[in-house]
Description:
By secondary structure, the protein is an alpha/beta fold. The protein has helices at residues 17-33, 53-82, 97-107, 130-138, 171-187, 203-216, 236-246, 269-277; strands at 8-12, 36-42, 88-93, 112-116, 120-122, 125-127, 143-146, 162-166, 190-197, 226-233, 251-257, 259-261, 264-266, 282-287. The strands form three sheets. Strands 3-2-1-4-7-14-11-8-9-10 form a ten-stranded mixed β-sheet, sandwiched between helices. A two-stranded antiparallel ribbon has the order 5-6. Strands 12-13 form a two-stranded antiparallel ribbon. The longest helix is centred in the N-terminal third of the chain and has 30 residues, at 53-82. The radius of gyration is 21 Å and the shape is elongated. 36% of the residues are buried.
Amino acid sequence: MEVFHPKRILCPIDFSEPATLALHYGKELAGCFDADLLVLYAEPFTPPPYFTARQIDKLKKEAELSKKKAHKSLKAYVRNRLGEAITAEIIVIGDQPVSSILKAAVERDVGLIVMGTHGHSGFNRFMLGSVTERVLHEVDRPVLTVRLKKGEKDPQTISVKRILCPVNMTEIAYRALEHAVSIAECFRADLQVLHVIERNIDEAEEKSEMDRLCQWIPQSTRSRCSLKERVEKGDAAERIIAVAATQGCDMIVLGAQHKRFVDTTVIGTTTTRVTRHAPCPVLTVIRK
């Protein structure tokens, strides 16, 4: 089993409360893995099409000045939220947020992206913010999404003591398990590996599935963290969310497979539902 050990963690910021929460998680993960923390702010510069060359040149100079001010503001924001002792690389890009995040992730060889989500209700379901949704659909590396709970304020401490890793015993699930084990080892957290069976089975078959799950998990992982197997029956997304809530989990780690759909990519329904409705942060381990 490979060890997940990000050397650089990217935290996109828009100065909102969810982004501040993501910044705290980025700090904790960077400290745990001894990784560099990169804080990114992106704002596009798009002059109106009817502007003359002279007007555009003037706007470019103003945009450059604005970029310098944003860099200063972002530096102060990080210092005020995380303290003087925390060192973070400040990145300000004059472009659209999604393309800036994707570009920075590749150019800086980022091992993990941590994002706050702006959820809102619509079409009878909870939606993630549009930027987060698009990043999840287009990125090729792990993304941790965090969301403020109702009434929750800027936290002083981040606790990762219980981790849930849902698996279906596929290759991408194995990659998710690699990440979950590494994070559990780093934070000295308990890890539950959950397999949900979405069909009617009897007691004997359920025991057989538990045995198969236990055999699927490499023996070497058990020496790295406190690990427990669990088998549930029912709808996968519903059971994952329910177990995370009842067990008081601090993080869910699950795998997602990108699939082509016309001219874009999508991720599985279970992953999407869990990411939108989970009672705790969700680390999505993505495979294209």
